[in-house]
Amino acid sequence: MKIIKHKDKKNLSLLSLINKKTTFIKGYWFDIINVNNERIGTITGYRLHIPLLLNDLVTDLYAVNELNHISPLCSRLGTYLRNNVELLKEKSGYLYFLNELQIEEKHRNPRIEKLCLSLLQKKMSVIVYSLGQSDFPVAHPHKQQVHKHLKEQESLLLKKNWIQEKTHNFFISPTVNEPKKVYDNFSVLMIEHSPFEHWMKVKGIEWAQSLWKGIVEQPKHIKHWKEIKTTYTSNEKDYASSFLDPLRFLKGFKISDFIECKPDIKELHNDGYEIDEVIRGEVMIVTFSGKDYSVYYLETIANEVKCIDLNVGVFNKKEQHFDFGGDLELFSYEINLLICDFFIEFFIRLYKQYNQEVNVPENMSLFRAALHNGFRVDITIKPL
User: Fold this and answer.
1) Radius of gyration of the chain from Cα atoms?
2) Which of 37, 110, 249, 353 is a good FRET partner for 318, with 20 to 30 A between their CA atoms?
3) Local structure of 310: helix, strand or coil
4) Is the pLDDT of residue 366 over 50?
């Protein structure tokens, strides 16, 4: 048996209307397919990208407002998540807000339902099941049978160690610890001189990569993607040999390192920058098609105006440094302007969450935990 993305065009049109208006939550259904390749049921609910959602819950809370406008049931989910953000920490995948597990009566039995839930758990990092409550209700002629079935499902969930949240009558899937890939040069010694870099590396590579994925998948960027594709394909024949396909690069690079490198203001003056203050500077190292590239983010103040510089460079193996511009220009000027928005949002979201988690104790900061526990770690061993 398997579960695959729902294919009914009528229902997909309904979900499309919902998803056009949202950033954090998407109507997302699955078809349940048996061993004979027959559709025997449907899983209805919503999917939420966890790193993007958590970033918002600890900073701006736009997601809560969005959930309030979807439905009363989603509003209750927003309230629950806002008060239980620890449920999402250390998770790099998706949360599924399961509304209903619908299996045709002739195929329904505890074994099938248990298998469906298990398959769904393999696809999602966290599942919140609103058992008996749905934004997509199906008419059932026999209410007594429905009540009996819900009681059976409740018993099944509790036996499988799902946690019952009685305030909203949600069931939460058992916690599964996700493996964390650490950065090669991670050290607790960087807490003192590079606290932002240390916080980022405590989070892990998968978390950073997943946050990036959540950012580029936002509906607000659909127009951006179309502009990038149109601009690139219409001028492809005129591009230099060093130019990259921006669509493949943005969706295909893998983050390998993150370095906090706030430059000295004198160095920037020597490079021609007319600025009054340096706020922050970071470099993200990424790998694409076997080559290393850097994304350099610089935030400064000039004449009381905050300025942001963003550059993407290629690693020069001969000189052992990253080159920006010149003969190694990676994108045309027009495409550079378009792709900058993705990276700027990424760096801004990172820093806002960092400040919040470090400075607000009630957010149960992972960074504070690292500060308190890190010096008891043998730094000759890579922390898990």
Assistant:
1) 24
2) 249
3) strand
4) no
Tell me 106's DSSP state.
G
| Dihedral (Cα; 359, 365, 369, 370), 10-degree rounding | -80
What one-character-per-residue DSSP string does 41-100 give? EEEEEEEEEHHHHHHHHTTT-HHHHHHHHH-HHHHHHHHHHHH-GGGTTT--SEEEEEEE
Token pair listed for 107: 């195929």
Tokens representing 85 are: 């953000």
Q: pLDDT (tens digit, 9 = 90+) per residue, 1-49? A: 999 999 998 899 989 988 988 999 999 999 999 999 999 999 999 999 9
Q: How many CB atoms lie within 10 A of CB 159?
A: 10
Q: What is the DSSP annotation of 203-231?
A: H-HHHHHHHHHHHHT-GGGHHHHHHHHHH
Give CA–CA dist 309/307, Å, rounded: 7
pLDDT in tens, 81-116: 999 999 998 899 999 999 999 999 899 889 999 999
Nearest to 108 by CA among 152, 57, 65, 70: 152
Alpha carbon distance 259, 364 (integer Å): 24
Residue type, 255: I
